[in-house]
Amino acid sequence: MPDPVGSPLAARDRGLVWHPYAPLDGPQPYAVEGASGVHLTVTAPDGSQHEAVDAMASWWCAVHGYRNPVLDAAAHDQLDRFSHVMFGGLTHEPAVSLAERLTAIAPGPMSHVFFADSGSVSVEVALKLSLQYQAARGRPRRQRFLTVRGGYHGDTFAAMSVCDPVDGMHSAFPGALARQVFAPRPPGARLRMTVHGEHRWETDELALEAWADEVRTLAGAHTDELAAVVVEPVLQGAGGMHVYHPACLRVLREVADDHGLLLVVDEIATGFGRTGRLFASEWADVAPDVMCVGKALTGGYLSLAAVLMTRQVGEAITRSQFRALLHGPTFMANPLACAVANASVELVESSWKEDVPRVGRVLAEQLAPAAGLSCVADVRTLGAVGVVQLTSAVDVGRVTAAALRRGVWVRPFRDLVYTMPPYVCGDDDVRVIGEGIVGAVAEVHG
Hints:
Largest sheet: 7 strands, mixed
Subcellular location: Cytoplasm
Catalytic activity: (8S)-8-amino-7-oxononanoate + S-adenosyl-L-methionine = S-adenosyl-4-methylsulfanyl-2-oxobutanoate + (7R,8S)-7,8-diammoniononanoate
Strand order of the largest sheet: 4-14-13-12-9-5-6
Structural class: alpha/beta
Cofactor: pyridoxal 5'-phosphate
Subunit structure: Homodimer.
Pfam families: Aminotran_3
Shape: globular
């Protein structure tokens, strides 16, 4: 490996610390020297320093920005009380308050909450819960899950099994992942704003109808094996930033009802306002049986996720052989994380209805010029999500560097250069993001 010339910190890191989906001898990482508001202070591998708008919101979780005074205060206040206690046989105010808050704002009648360490773990819990539910209902042979192609639900084993079987990591673990039932990816859709300010979803109606028929047929063929339907509502995130029509979610709700399945929605990336609704399920007026939330839950301060479920699900588990949900992390309902989460959710509730549409409007304006580039296949936005999809794979290293020179931190993948910025970005910050992405794509890919 060539000697790195950038930050001494990055030099110490390289070859010592694993980074997500990166080899030990991969490119030298960028070093963060500071973070405040929506900006990162970054040292590049060539030693240059940059002040950049974080267009990623730290993988979609830092929706309130960095060093947020409200979240800082919540963390300091809880540190002065206690930072952690076990949740076995004990409870505490931050956890109970957070559970009350989440069940109050969730789509549909959610009555119970299970706290987990991370998004992936919350999906694991939801899948285990579904199996326990079916066993409690006298259907223990229902051990598989119906999901759709293009999905992503985490990197742990059960979660990986319901990720896309081709674009996911199935091939790296042959024989280790459970074989699930995969329907086609839902047909793509766009959300338009009418002249009267109303939302209108557009899609290929014939394709949607054909997709719905195939899903119903597939569910019917496997009905005695299936425990639940698992899906990211309206927006598939790491599977390709794919937007689909809410009618597809309604079809999945109907299929679940027709076959006695639970509908599990993964709102880890889409929850707390990101798509233009507090929860993406609300675009379809669908009430899930089980819902996973994470990421923005703590505003990026600490790792925490939650699994919400209906009273019917909770009662079935309580009447079952084991009576308990068979999971119990050491850091379950960590008081420090729950205290910050209470503050984060309160901030979301008070501001997302203004901030998310504003960010989305400016993103749509600023990313639109990318559609004129020959290397661009599509430009789309939904809520505070903006996507530039190329006609070929992104040159990640060069696009990242080109965007950073323009004052923007991005993390492209596959054929996508996208942004899911903090909600607290000002209009000027969003313009910098849009111009930076378009400029970087034009410079590198032409």
